[in-house]
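Checklist before submission:
- one chain only
- standard amino acids only
- sequence pasted in full

Submission:
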Amino acid sequence: RRREGERRWLRSASSCGSPAVAAMAPRWAAGALPSAALLLLLLAVASAGLSGYFGTKSRYEEVNPHLLRDPLSLGPAAAGSRLPAACAPLQLRALLRHGTRYPTAGQIRRLGELHARLLRRPAAAAAGCSAAADLAAWQMWYEESLDGRLAPQGRRDMEHLARRLAARFPALFAARRRLVLASSSKHRCLQSGAAFRRGLGPSLSLGSDEVEVEVNDSLMRFFDHCAKFVALVEENDTAMCQVNAFKEGPEMRKVLEKVASALCLPVEELNADLVQVAFLACSYELAIKNVTSPWCSLFSEEDAKVLEYLNDLKQYWKRGYGYDINSRSSCILFQDIFQHLDKAVEESKSSKPISSPLIVQVGHAETLQPLLALMGFFKDDEPLKANNYVRQMHRKFRSGRIVPYAANLVFVLYHCDQVKTSKEEYQVQMLLNEKLMFFHHSNETISTYADLKDYYKDILENCHFKEECALPKVNITAVDEL
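Returned file contents:
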């Protein structure tokens, strides 16, 4: 059971001081902002530096810049990544986020609303406002039917990832190896799975032209099946109080006023959600079309950092460390990973062929983020809150660095010969976005399988999805329970 101390921490972390935060918002003097022309000049110069702050809408190349030059490059060799001699990979388990996607229907509607507002401006008012004129001339090419579907770039993301993983682990991807391919039921994930398979090409002899992609929402969308998470976090407005407080806080107010000034709009006509949609439009144009959108001209790098924090706050409280149930709901997936690793170890010990040497599963940022939190990665000493933006400038929890489009978490199990002890015979590495991760218990990039299991023994033995996700029988608030 959860320790009482952890309960107290979660309660204090989730409490919001909305009135106090709102009171910190400064009263801006009419002449305090620079002229629109000067502001636009400054924004245009700074717009090139926005791409590192797009959060979950970040291109995969932001975490692996070498791929911009060569999408099949394996990058610089990581220091300390060498395995002991005579280690051979037995099993690879890859959890992928789908590739680059189009905006959702809701995001497209809000962008259309903002764009229409600019088009409705009187010609005389628009004449003296170049940013508004440029954006009014921008073609609204998104249609609601695109609704989160995989973009052509997303297919390339997956095909190239497949080819890089095959180059990294040629023995596992060799001919006649069995590939198990599973996916969330969402169209973008199914298409990502198919693109990954295509990326492997004809060299992977699988007995048929296409590997069937199995739909497995119980593992890839575990959050949908967790009643406690759905009721107390997903559908509970108060659970996002830190996010809502930040939207009303001084940092967002400053961004709001700058964007309103650049568009020559009364600040009352904008809100945090519309500003966020404009920022998303900038990110989508870069990720999907590889172009710098005129929407980007509205934001400086400082603005981008504020909007990234808003995105990270949401990820933290909805998918990360904000509430215990966010990560505990993923233990069903965590345990499944280790059940397959266990099976591979047993088959190896019995000198049997490994029945599932390759397991690739395609899900969402919402699949990977809770799992990484469950394992204790990217945890800051202080929770992310509406009122500690400045203190969190160097935080570990940056969603764009953790779960960009095509993010991947890979577990590799090795069998090693010429070892001193039997425990060292089976070893594991973990890679996030193709970079080796350091294990908490050893601060090394490789661990014996026995040590890794021992470190996570409590989660493996005592985290039961059905019990964790059961709704409390009495009617209590999310803050009390979580």
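Reviewer check: Residues 50 and 301 are 6 Å apart (CA to CA).
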